[in-house]
Amino acid sequence: MRIRYELKYIIPRELKELIFAYWMQYLMKAPYTDELGQYPILSQYYDTADFLFHSEKLAGIGIRRKVRLRTYGYGFRPHQVTFLEIKQRVQDDQSIKARKLFKSFHPKFIDPDNWPYNEDDEFGRFCALRDYHSLRLSAQVFYFREAYQGTLDPDLRITFDSSLIALHPGENLTRDLLYDQSRTYLPESKVILEIKNNGPLPDWVHDMIQQVEIVQEPVPKYVMAVDFLRIIDITRGAYV
To answer: What is the pTM of this model?
Structure first.
Protein backbone atom coordinates (compact mmCIF):
# COMPACT_ATOMS: atom_id res chain seq x y z
CA MET A 1 0.00 0.00 0.00
CA ARG A 2 1.26 3.44 -0.95
CA ILE A 3 0.56 6.73 0.78
CA ARG A 4 -1.62 8.94 -1.40
CA TYR A 5 -1.98 12.69 -1.11
CA GLU A 6 -5.57 13.86 -1.40
CA LEU A 7 -7.06 17.34 -1.74
CA LYS A 8 -10.82 17.93 -1.83
CA TYR A 9 -12.93 20.95 -2.73
CA ILE A 10 -16.63 21.68 -3.24
CA ILE A 11 -16.91 24.04 -6.21
CA PRO A 12 -19.64 25.49 -8.45
CA ARG A 13 -20.18 23.72 -11.77
CA GLU A 14 -19.28 26.90 -13.62
CA LEU A 15 -15.90 27.00 -11.88
CA LYS A 16 -15.35 23.33 -12.69
CA GLU A 17 -15.65 24.14 -16.39
CA LEU A 18 -13.15 26.98 -16.06
CA ILE A 19 -10.63 24.84 -14.17
CA PHE A 20 -10.94 21.91 -16.54
CA ALA A 21 -10.55 24.12 -19.61
CA TYR A 22 -7.07 24.98 -18.30
CA TRP A 23 -6.15 21.51 -17.01
CA MET A 24 -7.37 19.46 -19.98
CA GLN A 25 -4.09 19.95 -21.86
CA TYR A 26 -2.35 17.95 -19.11
CA LEU A 27 -4.99 15.24 -18.68
CA MET A 28 -6.53 12.24 -20.42
CA LYS A 29 -9.70 10.31 -19.60
CA ALA A 30 -9.18 7.62 -16.98
CA PRO A 31 -9.67 3.97 -17.99
CA TYR A 32 -13.19 2.48 -17.95
CA THR A 33 -14.93 5.85 -18.36
CA ASP A 34 -17.62 6.49 -20.97
CA GLU A 35 -17.51 9.01 -23.81
CA LEU A 36 -18.08 11.80 -21.28
CA GLY A 37 -15.25 10.59 -19.06
CA GLN A 38 -17.71 9.35 -16.43
CA TYR A 39 -18.76 6.22 -14.57
CA PRO A 40 -21.21 5.52 -11.72
CA ILE A 41 -20.00 4.56 -8.23
CA LEU A 42 -22.04 2.84 -5.53
CA SER A 43 -20.53 2.28 -2.08
CA GLN A 44 -22.01 0.38 0.86
CA TYR A 45 -20.31 1.57 4.05
CA TYR A 46 -19.90 -0.35 7.28
CA ASP A 47 -19.65 0.93 10.83
CA THR A 48 -19.87 -0.20 14.43
CA ALA A 49 -23.03 -0.35 16.52
CA ASP A 50 -22.17 3.05 18.01
CA PHE A 51 -20.96 4.51 14.67
CA LEU A 52 -17.31 4.74 15.65
CA PHE A 53 -16.02 5.57 12.17
CA HIS A 54 -18.63 8.32 11.80
CA SER A 55 -17.77 9.89 15.16
CA GLU A 56 -14.00 9.68 14.57
CA LYS A 57 -14.39 11.73 11.41
CA LEU A 58 -16.53 14.35 13.15
CA ALA A 59 -14.05 14.53 16.02
CA GLY A 60 -11.16 15.05 13.62
CA ILE A 61 -9.22 12.00 14.81
CA GLY A 62 -5.94 12.06 12.91
CA ILE A 63 -5.59 8.33 12.26
CA ARG A 64 -8.96 6.85 11.32
CA ARG A 65 -10.47 4.46 8.81
CA LYS A 66 -13.59 3.61 6.86
CA VAL A 67 -14.70 0.30 5.41
CA ARG A 68 -16.81 -0.04 2.29
CA LEU A 69 -17.97 -2.32 -0.48
CA ARG A 70 -17.64 -0.52 -3.83
CA THR A 71 -18.91 -1.28 -7.30
CA TYR A 72 -18.91 0.72 -10.51
CA GLY A 73 -22.56 0.46 -11.42
CA TYR A 74 -26.11 1.08 -10.21
CA GLY A 75 -26.36 -1.93 -7.93
CA PHE A 76 -24.45 -4.85 -6.46
CA ARG A 77 -25.01 -7.44 -9.18
CA PRO A 78 -23.70 -11.01 -9.48
CA HIS A 79 -20.25 -11.19 -11.12
CA GLN A 80 -19.97 -7.39 -11.33
CA VAL A 81 -16.57 -5.83 -10.59
CA THR A 82 -16.74 -5.18 -6.84
CA PHE A 83 -14.11 -4.40 -4.22
CA LEU A 84 -13.88 -4.48 -0.45
CA GLU A 85 -11.87 -1.47 0.71
CA ILE A 86 -10.30 -0.16 3.88
CA LYS A 87 -9.30 3.46 3.55
CA GLN A 88 -7.17 4.80 6.38
CA ARG A 89 -6.24 8.39 7.01
CA VAL A 90 -2.68 8.55 8.36
CA GLN A 91 -2.32 12.34 8.60
CA ASP A 92 -3.56 15.52 6.95
CA ASP A 93 -4.03 15.05 3.19
CA GLN A 94 -2.48 11.56 3.30
CA SER A 95 -4.15 8.17 3.23
CA ILE A 96 -3.57 4.55 2.36
CA LYS A 97 -6.06 2.09 0.94
CA ALA A 98 -6.31 -1.68 0.99
CA ARG A 99 -8.69 -3.22 -1.50
CA LYS A 100 -9.64 -6.74 -2.45
CA LEU A 101 -11.43 -7.73 -5.64
CA PHE A 102 -14.17 -10.34 -5.46
CA LYS A 103 -13.29 -12.78 -8.23
CA SER A 104 -16.93 -13.83 -8.45
CA PHE A 105 -19.13 -11.38 -6.59
CA HIS A 106 -22.50 -12.41 -5.20
CA PRO A 107 -24.95 -9.99 -3.51
CA LYS A 108 -24.76 -12.10 -0.35
CA PHE A 109 -21.37 -10.49 0.28
CA ILE A 110 -23.11 -7.19 1.07
CA ASP A 111 -23.65 -8.75 4.50
CA PRO A 112 -20.25 -8.64 6.28
CA ASP A 113 -21.01 -11.95 7.97
CA ASN A 114 -20.68 -13.56 4.54
CA TRP A 115 -17.26 -12.18 3.63
CA PRO A 116 -15.09 -15.13 2.57
CA TYR A 117 -12.48 -15.62 5.26
CA ASN A 118 -9.01 -16.74 4.23
CA GLU A 119 -6.14 -15.90 6.55
CA ASP A 120 -3.68 -16.20 3.67
CA ASP A 121 -5.09 -13.38 1.55
CA GLU A 122 -6.41 -9.85 1.96
CA PHE A 123 -9.87 -11.05 2.97
CA GLY A 124 -8.38 -12.17 6.27
CA ARG A 125 -7.59 -8.55 7.13
CA PHE A 126 -11.13 -7.44 6.35
CA CYS A 127 -12.67 -10.26 8.36
CA ALA A 128 -10.40 -9.53 11.33
CA LEU A 129 -11.54 -5.90 11.30
CA ARG A 130 -15.16 -7.01 10.94
CA ASP A 131 -14.88 -9.31 13.93
CA TYR A 132 -13.01 -6.82 16.10
CA HIS A 133 -15.54 -4.03 15.53
CA SER A 134 -18.66 -6.19 14.92
CA LEU A 135 -19.21 -4.28 11.69
CA ARG A 136 -22.69 -3.83 10.33
CA LEU A 137 -24.35 -2.16 7.36
CA SER A 138 -24.52 1.62 7.42
CA ALA A 139 -25.28 4.26 4.77
CA GLN A 140 -24.74 3.84 1.05
CA VAL A 141 -23.57 6.55 -1.33
CA PHE A 142 -24.11 6.76 -5.09
CA TYR A 143 -22.69 9.36 -7.45
CA PHE A 144 -21.30 9.96 -10.90
CA ARG A 145 -17.54 10.44 -11.23
CA GLU A 146 -15.81 12.24 -14.08
CA ALA A 147 -12.26 10.93 -13.93
CA TYR A 148 -8.93 11.90 -15.51
CA GLN A 149 -5.29 11.02 -15.09
CA GLY A 150 -2.12 12.89 -15.94
CA THR A 151 -0.80 12.34 -19.46
CA LEU A 152 2.77 12.37 -18.17
CA ASP A 153 2.03 11.14 -14.64
CA PRO A 154 -0.59 8.35 -14.62
CA ASP A 155 -0.52 8.29 -10.79
CA LEU A 156 -2.09 11.75 -10.78
CA ARG A 157 -5.89 11.48 -10.61
CA ILE A 158 -8.29 14.39 -10.91
CA THR A 159 -11.99 13.65 -10.48
CA PHE A 160 -15.26 15.58 -10.36
CA ASP A 161 -18.10 13.93 -8.40
CA SER A 162 -21.73 14.98 -8.78
CA SER A 163 -25.33 13.90 -8.10
CA LEU A 164 -24.61 12.39 -4.69
CA ILE A 165 -27.48 10.20 -3.53
CA ALA A 166 -27.84 8.87 0.02
CA LEU A 167 -29.25 5.37 0.49
CA HIS A 168 -30.26 3.49 3.62
CA PRO A 169 -28.34 0.34 4.60
CA GLY A 170 -28.94 -2.37 2.01
CA GLU A 171 -31.42 -0.25 0.04
CA ASN A 172 -31.60 -0.86 -3.71
CA LEU A 173 -31.05 2.07 -6.03
CA THR A 174 -34.20 2.14 -8.14
CA ARG A 175 -34.89 4.38 -11.12
CA ASP A 176 -37.24 6.44 -8.95
CA LEU A 177 -34.56 6.99 -6.32
CA LEU A 178 -32.02 7.91 -8.99
CA TYR A 179 -34.18 10.89 -9.93
CA ASP A 180 -35.52 11.66 -6.44
CA GLN A 181 -34.16 15.09 -5.55
CA SER A 182 -35.03 14.53 -1.89
CA ARG A 183 -32.24 11.92 -1.75
CA THR A 184 -29.60 14.13 -3.37
CA TYR A 185 -27.48 15.67 -0.64
CA LEU A 186 -25.17 17.80 -2.77
CA PRO A 187 -26.83 20.60 -4.79
CA GLU A 188 -26.82 20.01 -8.53
CA SER A 189 -25.06 23.35 -8.86
CA LYS A 190 -22.00 21.92 -7.03
CA VAL A 191 -19.37 19.27 -7.74
CA ILE A 192 -16.66 17.72 -5.59
CA LEU A 193 -13.15 18.16 -6.95
CA GLU A 194 -10.64 15.56 -5.73
CA ILE A 195 -6.94 15.61 -6.56
CA LYS A 196 -4.85 12.54 -5.73
CA ASN A 197 -1.20 11.77 -6.31
CA ASN A 198 1.59 9.65 -4.87
CA GLY A 199 3.86 12.66 -4.47
CA PRO A 200 3.93 16.46 -4.79
CA LEU A 201 1.40 17.96 -7.17
CA PRO A 202 2.52 19.50 -10.47
CA ASP A 203 2.92 23.27 -10.63
CA TRP A 204 0.02 23.60 -13.08
CA VAL A 205 -2.33 22.16 -10.46
CA HIS A 206 -1.13 24.55 -7.75
CA ASP A 207 -1.21 27.51 -10.10
CA MET A 208 -4.88 27.07 -10.95
CA ILE A 209 -5.91 26.43 -7.34
CA GLN A 210 -4.28 29.69 -6.32
CA GLN A 211 -5.67 31.57 -9.29
CA VAL A 212 -9.31 30.66 -8.59
CA GLU A 213 -8.79 30.94 -4.81
CA ILE A 214 -10.59 27.77 -3.81
CA VAL A 215 -10.15 26.51 -0.26
CA GLN A 216 -9.69 22.88 0.67
CA GLU A 217 -12.38 21.48 2.96
CA PRO A 218 -13.46 18.12 4.38
CA VAL A 219 -15.90 16.29 2.11
CA PRO A 220 -16.86 13.11 4.00
CA LYS A 221 -19.39 11.50 1.66
CA TYR A 222 -20.19 8.74 4.15
CA VAL A 223 -20.67 11.04 7.15
CA MET A 224 -22.78 13.42 5.07
CA ALA A 225 -25.04 10.55 3.98
CA VAL A 226 -25.49 9.23 7.54
CA ASP A 227 -26.43 12.69 8.79
CA PHE A 228 -28.65 13.44 5.80
CA LEU A 229 -30.70 10.27 6.35
CA ARG A 230 -30.57 10.57 10.17
CA ILE A 231 -29.45 6.95 10.31
CA ILE A 232 -28.00 7.26 13.83
CA ASP A 233 -31.27 8.66 15.21
CA ILE A 234 -33.26 5.95 13.41
CA THR A 235 -30.96 3.21 14.70
CA ARG A 236 -31.05 4.46 18.28
CA GLY A 237 -34.81 4.80 18.10
CA ALA A 238 -35.08 1.13 17.19
CA TYR A 239 -33.53 0.23 20.55
CA VAL A 240 -35.45 2.67 22.73
So the answer is: 0.93
